[in-house]
Amino acid sequence: MFKTLVRVAVAGLPIWLAALPAAAQEPARLEIVWPVEGMDVPLGTDAERAIGVIVRSNFTLRPGGQCGTDARCGHIHMKLDPEGNTCNIPGRPYNSMNSDFGGDLIAAHFGHCPTPTGAHVIGVLLADDHHRPILVDGQPVTALIRVTTR
Fold first, then answer.
1. Of 63, 72, 74, 114, whose CB has the highest number of CB atoms within 10 Å?
2. Which domains, from first to last, does the chain contain?
3. pTM as predicted
4. CA nearest 142: which of 128, 130, 125, 121?
């Protein structure tokens, strides 16, 4: 279970401590907190028809490129209706990122969808500072919910 022993000195006396392996850290998690699965969501009245989406992760969420050497830090890529890529920002592989705000709030821009109102899937992906997916057991850390917009 313990990978290495670490020698430290306390009051000049050597003491050996067992160091937990890096794998003992909790795996990355991501969930969509709001809106909730199956919710009817009124769209914004702006041209982007935007709503706020709140996520929660056990990683620190900062704008892309702001994590430095913190390996437990990342940002969010959001897609609306991710199977078809029809709601992406033109020329981008996503609809939104949390880089505008950092933290757990992301603006979902339904105005990019061919039909902003109706049944939609909101998908989020946890990415590192270089926009690569964070993987757990070889799979990207993601969350999906279904909503109906009006």
1. 74
2. 26-149 (2.60.40.10)
3. 0.80
4. 125
